[in-house]
């Protein structure tokens, strides 16, 4: 959604009755435009009235008269001379690079070699350096001369083009404009300045979240920067704009929920939805003075409504009186006998009207015709009138045949053959009929007077455009601009990024702290959005059973007032790039964990000793004693919390009665470790959390005994580490 603002200054005692806001993009959604009038201070403000969208072409600038042929020739000559001078300088610099000193000649046999011309070679090198710098400065000046000459020639050609009396709609020139009508308020209480804001939707803009995390050397202070990969091809460049990013889709169609009532009693069919209603009674009396004063009979004007793309059929009401009764129940006007006789026979190829007769204002003699979906085929005679689906205004209506055998309780009409009650037809207006901005009231001289009709885009722009514009070409360019803008919505997210979406039915907005600039090229650019300080808690994790490496992990609390969306995160430690991690969806005040790789300054040594014993008098059991000793050394300049993970052996369920495992001693105490996301699930997990002082060490130990029957043995030796 784009918001444009313009200041309007009062001219004299009142504001102008109509203003035109130009420079709007071609891809603008005409039905979404809204206007807002703001004032500063006290006083009466004008009221915004009608708002329409039309086409606009830049007008002639009297300060820029069209150039003469001599001016164009001189500008072209200047450009050619500048290009030739730059070419000669570039060639001279190339020849200078080939200037090399000659090698020292070979002396005659028996004679000493000639002295090396060191001074001459140094003079040659100095000459090449000095001349090269001069040519470099001259080439830079020549490039600037070529640029100025090109701009001058393009400016003259543009002035010549704008001076043309007939302007065709061109991609770089045609724009849309908004025509706003204001009231005629005047007086001393009227404000002298107002601010007019236009709000409209335009396709062709997408964004994907990204993050930058900066940590200090101790990893206890952090800043979280929210960035966004933004691309837009809306047809207008963004210069110094206030940007707000949202997870919502403003152009998505959403049906409002329908709250249905619940009643206790006999089952009744649901009431039919009314998609149209008959015109008010006595509407023709509004034109009584016109007919009495002019006395001109209404004429049939050319229809300008957009044709409905559907197959149609015509009902012959003369053959079936039951259909006329159903029409009366549905609120449709009933033709008399003379009209029934004049109605055309049923035909699938007959032309269709765009509205029901009660809405279109057609003369009574016109046959009643309704569009029919192609999937229904020809209507059955036993089906009756069926259901009418369509809209009251702009008129795309369809006649449906009810399903055979469908019935229910209630007071609806009886179906033939005792099949129960037939539900009343459901009438629903289509979305295209809700475009109120393209509805026009027929003139008083038209036989369709008193009814609204939906005009096409060509007529809409022609009625409001005050300049000469080829509307056919303009509509083609509008369709091309919209199609080009929507291409961006079908592209994949940049590598490593993900498009944002609503989470749990909630949408969030992220406001950029500073204005941004972004050209309408469709290229995704990284833009800064917000920067906050975050609470950081470092810790270290090691699994010495598998590897002696100690891994760094930093837990960050979400500092934003909105959730962190899924996206990549660039992590910097002490000003140096560490790695690129991934952030998953994190709620407000939630925590994210970022892995930073191996910490080389923390070392862990793991030693295991094993012994066997047969305790007791009868020597029927064998005890396998395992002693684990760990030493953690911290060579960093600050204390470190190290998390060491181990695992006890687990007896198979089939041998649980014969094999027992008993922990004899642990120093310091450990705790159970059961990660929820482990696949397969981890059994026997244990974990130490120890605080190791700076430049200090900690020792840990654990002893457990595995008792097995003496007649058992470990196949393959002691597998205490498995």
Automatic annotation (TrEMBL):
Biased composition (Pro residues): 268-281
Pfam families linked: DUF4139 (PF13598)
Domain DUF4139: 196-709
Residue ranges of the region described as Disordered: 253-302, 325-365, 404-423
Name of the protein in question: DUF4139 domain-containing protein
Sequence ranges of Gly residues compositional bias: 407-421
Domain of life of the native organism: Bacteria
